[in-house]
Specification:
The protein is built from 13 helices and 14 strands. The protein has 366 residues and is α/β, with parallel strands linked by helices. It folds into two domains: 235 residues, Aspartate Aminotransferase, domain 2; 120 residues, Aspartate Aminotransferase, domain 1 (Alpha-Beta Complex), CATH 3.90.1150. The strands form four sheets. It has a seven-stranded mixed sheet with strand order 1-9-8-5-4-2-3, with helices on both faces. A hairpin with a 2-residue loop joins β6 and β7. α2 packs antiparallel against α9. The protein is globular, with a radius of gyration of 21 Å. Bound molecules: pyridoxal-5'-phosphate.
Length: 366
């Protein structure tokens, strides 16, 4: 029996161990552990990669969202529209700046349904936060059109989608600001927490650049009270190294997705790229009416699967204050009951991939 882990980060570390140790030695010897030159180097590479003028390394993806909202001036009394099926942090960031999340339903691709957007806009709405969930870009053409009509800022929650594209344009260049996570479980990851912000807007860039470093304009002048949310020099140097590998890894994510799609579409609902999208499959989410039994069966064969995410944000205990109920977002709620994520990461072996496919086939044909 082949054991198939949902993810195994040590394989990638081992494959690049010599390079990574060399980076550690170099930074260790430099003495510049915070705001060293490698941070600016990474920011330049990341901006170029995302097709924007500016990028900023920050402490994590959640802070990237918080700093983005702060740059818009979002605060108490404001509303930010997002989707109810994201990771907790999307809403956590909105609440952290004192604003109120308003949810809209999703399409079958798990991303914001622009046709639900208009009815969620009130005179308090200040920004829209589409989440490119599972590494599939949201329908930004429609979302931006509506946002412009109502004078709303757009922040991409791109935590799961670095390397993705929408109508040929990179994720990170599709709104006013984009927030990425460099957490170990994300496609571009480092050895701890980290985040990245991209934007084409110089004012937002300068404001966030100060805000992430205590609001300092220079060494001794605080222009605005800020945060300590910096990406360590060491992690930035590692992120630059990893960025040179990202396209290769994305190719692998997409190859594995293609094998799953090919092998499983007779049994399960599988994700298929639309004409507009180039998805990076941070997660490969399939839908089964027999999810519980299927997950148990696969577990009995040593195959680990997960659910992203089993409890929707509007139904979380912490969300009670927002006044939503079950039934408010029928599509997201329906999808959350059938979805499950299959193992997908670049170092997954062919034997493991085949084992996932045959495990699912055996379940349905046994
Ligand atoms: C991971 C994630 C975040 C938060 O990123 P952290 O680096 O863990 O703070 C935000 N939004 C989404 C959709 C995520 O997947």
């Amino acid at each position: 029996m082949t054991q198939v882990p949902f993810v195994d980060l040590t394989r990638e570390f081992k494959a690049h161990e010599d390079d990574l140790v060399e980076i550690f030695r170099k930074i260790g010897r430099s003495g510049a552990y915070v705001m060293g030159p490698e941070l600016a180097e990474f920011e330049e590479l990341a901006a170029k990669y995302c097709g924007v003028k500016y990028a900023l390394g920050v402490a994590d993806g959640t802070d990237a969202l918080i700093l983005g909202l702060k740059a818009f001036g979002v605060g108490p009394g404001d509303e930010v529209i997002t989707t109810p099926n994201s990771f907790i942090a999307s809403v956590g960031a909105i609440v952290a700046v004192g604003a109120t999340p308003r949810f809209v339903d999703v399409k079958n691709d798990l991303n914001m349904d622009p046709s639900c957007l208009r009815e969620a806009i009130t005179d308090k709405t200040k920004a829209v936060m589409p989440v490119h969930l599972t590494g599939r870009p949201s329908d930004m053409g429609e979302i931006n059109k509506i946002a412009r009509e109502f004078n709303l800022f757009v922040i991409e929650d791109a935590a799961q989608a670095i390397g993705g594209r929408y109508r040929g344009r990179p994720v990170g260049s599709l709104g006013d600001i984009a927030a990425f996570s460099l957490h170990p479980l994300k496609n571009l990851h480092i050895y701890g927490d980290g985040g990245l912000i991209t934007t084409d807007n110089e004012d937002f860039y300068l404001r966030i650049k100060a805000l992430r470093n205590h609001g300092l304009k220079d060494r001794d002048t605080c222009g605005e009270w800020g945060m300590n949310s910096r990406l360590d020099t060491l992690q930035a140097a590692i992120a630059s190294f990893k960025l040179t590998k990202l396209d290769e890894w994305t190719k692998r994510f997409r190859e594995i997705a293609a094998v799953y799609r090919q092998g499983l579409s007779d049994y399960l609902t599988v994700p298929v790229d639309t004409e507009d999208e180039f998805a990076v499959y941070h997660n490969f989410v399939v839908h089964s009416d027999q999810r519980k039994d299927l997950m148990e069966y696969l577990a009995s064969r040593g195959i680990d699967t997960k659910i992203h995410y089993p409890v929707l944000l509007h139904l979380q205990p912490a969300a009670e204050q927002f006044g939503y109920r079950e039934g408010d977002f029928p599509v997201a709620e329906k999808l959350s009951k059938t979805m499950m994520s299959l193992p997908i990461f670049p170092a997954l072996t062919q034997i493991e991939i085949d084992s996932v496919v045959s495990g699912i086939r055996d379940f349905y044909t046994k």
